[in-house]
Amino acid sequence: MSGLNILNEKSLEIDPQQWCSDIETFIRTKFIESKKDGILVTVSGGLDSSVTAALTTRAVGKDKVTALMLPERFGNPEANLYGKLIIKQLDIKSKKIYINPILRSLKIADLLLTFLGGREFWRNRIEKVKQKKGDEVYKGYLKMLRGERVETFQKYTSKISGRQRARLLYAYKYAEDNNLLLVGATHKTERSVGLFVKCGIDDCADIMPLKNIYRSQIFQIGQHIGIPTEILDRTPNPDMVPGVTDKYVGYLELPVQQVDLILLGLENKMTPKEIAEQVTLREKKVLEIQEIVRLTETQRNPSLAPIMTVKTTKNE
């Protein structure tokens, strides 16, 4: 048994005031060290990017922060609405760049994906079609990680990944054109289970202040610093996957709070059986999450290379 004996909602409680202070100090220090003129934060209207933008503004002041929005022209209007909401609350400069031109040039400008992505209206209809075909998202995700071919799932995954990489290209170009430090908003939960795009906007940046924090803890920070309720109440929405308005429920069939507890248990060397008993789940489900963490290791560690050693001989 590990040092962690109990898994419940209190297991992930933090001191938000202290954590905010530590994160803001980190941002301020790295900004000073960078010798840049300001900071660029990509804003999507979700909780993670909103908290990142708010902490960055608190760390260096609103005059040093620019929010970059990278929507698709026919994308989810909610992302645009909530992105503008946090920008207005923080009173920071903003820039909006539509990414459609590069999507067309890469031949990944799928209008259906763009228009339906993340929209609540279409979720039930699309889910019924997928279930009829035996093509639920969580099954396709696990099969793909295991090396099985899932044609439809992989086709859409490729296009969705391309969109996030296109956003990264735009973000770094804008940051370098204006001598800005790029700040990203990825976090520990999505990275642990591979729900991010390797070399995408949710993977690469100059600094990632929330990278070692679970999403349940980001929510606590958001409450503490006054993120608007409309954003706090949003589901973890990828905004680009048809029929998926909560990526943890869609890809893992679990709410993010349970995912966080499982990950915390695994991090503390608890057995799957112990975790399952304490979070009231079947052990099989915990084993699946454990397998996903293992199978997505290469996503978290790109550009793997062998460790080489030089053998030396003593001079006679």
UniProtKB/TrEMBL annotation:
- Give the catalytic activity: deamido-NAD(+) + NH4(+) + ATP = AMP + diphosphate + NAD(+) + H(+)
The protein's matches in Pfam families, at most eight in alphabetical order, are given as: NAD_synthase
Q: Which InterPro entries does the UniProt entry name for this protein?
A: NAD/GMP_synthase, NAD_synthase, Rossmann-like_a/b/a_fold
Any one GO biological process: NAD+ biosynthetic process
- In Swiss-Prot or TrEMBL terms, this protein is called NH(3)-dependent NAD(+) synthetase
Please provide, alphabetically and separated by semicolons, the GO molecular function terms listed in this UniProt record: ATP binding; glutaminase activity; NAD+ synthase (glutamine-hydrolyzing) activity; NAD+ synthase activity
Give the pathway listed in the UniProt entry for this protein: Cofactor biosynthesis; NAD(+) biosynthesis
What species was this sequence derived from? Flavobacterium glycines
Its EC number(s): 6.3.1.5
This entry carries the following GO cellular component terms, namely: cytoplasm
The family this protein is said to belong to: Belongs to the NAD synthetase family.
Keyword list (alphabetical) reads: ATP-binding, Ligase, NAD, Nucleotide-binding
Under the heading NCBIfam families, the entry gives: nadE
Q: Which PANTHER family match?
A: GLUTAMINE-DEPENDENT NAD(+) SYNTHETASE (PTHR23090:SF9), NH 3 /GLUTAMINE-DEPENDENT NAD + SYNTHETASE (PTHR23090)
Coiled-coil positions are: none
Q: Which residues form the NAD/GMP synthase domain?
A: 21-106, 162-301
